[in-house]
Write a structure and sequence with these properties.
Elements lengths: L10 H4 L6 H20 L2 H26 L7 H19 L3 H19 L8 H21 L1 H4 L4 E2 L5 E2 L2 E2 L3 H22 L3 H11 L1 H6 L4 H26 L2 E2 L5 H14 L4 H25 L4 H5 L1 H19 L3 H15 L5
Helix pairs in contact: 3-8, 3-11, 3-12, 3-13, 4-5, 4-6, 4-11, 5-11, 8-11, 9-11, 12-13, 12-16, 13-15, 13-16
Length: 347
Amino acid sequence: MTTTGVYHTSYRSELRLRHTRAEQVRLWAAVILILLLPFILSPFWLSVANRIGIAVIGAIGLNILTGFTGQISLGQGGFLAVGAYPSGLLVVRLGLPTLVAMFLAVAFTALVGALIGLPALRLKGLYLAIATLASQFIIIYLVRNWEFITQGRDSISVPRPELFGFVLIGDFRWYWPIMGSAALATIVGRNLFRSGIGRALMAVRDQDIAASALGVNLTKYKVLSFAISSGFVGLAGALTGHYRIITWERFELDVSIEYLAMIIVGGLGSILGAILGAIFIVLLPSGLEQLAISVRGIFPQVTAQLPALQLATFGLVIILFLIFEPRGLARMWQRTKDYFRLWPFRY
């Protein structure tokens, strides 16, 4: 039989995240794959997987702000720094436990995001993008030059944290807390837009004047969207700071562009799109690097031109998605599912 729809006979059934058996099978297959990956990947690809996990958290945060609420931001790299530096400094200078430091860093980043989101009450579109871009440069300037933060150093080395008696040294041990955090961010993000807050944020995106006429407090929800989004990004930044050495060079403008590309390629207004976009954008340069290594004996000039090749491919990918599939990988995945669900029919 051809599936003609998903029908519910109770509220409990309707509120499930997975409505069909096929969705449940795909979910469990993804869980099994994630559990097996650290045992089958090489050290290089395991480090890439860890970077993907962190990127997923940040991309979900940016998609909450830009994709679901319609508030564009070019300050993602700066917010990552706001999460990384306080978390690292609280551990290094005050000796706080890592989890406590990360929690405080997430809360602080959410507060900073809310303050920077205040211009969103007056600005839209390109003007808001420029305001968030300004915040990016201000934050990077502070973490580079403020003596209280830097103490005359270019980087901060945070002691390796301990979790359940295990010191997190090496990519294998880091894989589990990173993927656990990414799974938690996915669950929270997915459920956020099933709540009244999430629906209000989408109403602001679709038509803020109509939303205001229906009783949605635009001031509250625009600032709240920045705070929630920044909280997610703060978690990604805190993980980055503890996973690797904290240095301002990891949070420059190109990082903000990468995260914006993740949600464009993955699909705006989709949690799955944020995940797929993060996977794609992180894998792209790593895949090109491995390809260049494999063909350097035949084409030695490829290795020399690898940075330029990565940048050119990055830009070309964004242009192609904007032209041929503006709704990103999430839409392509939906079309693929619809094709097999309806096959052999075309409607």
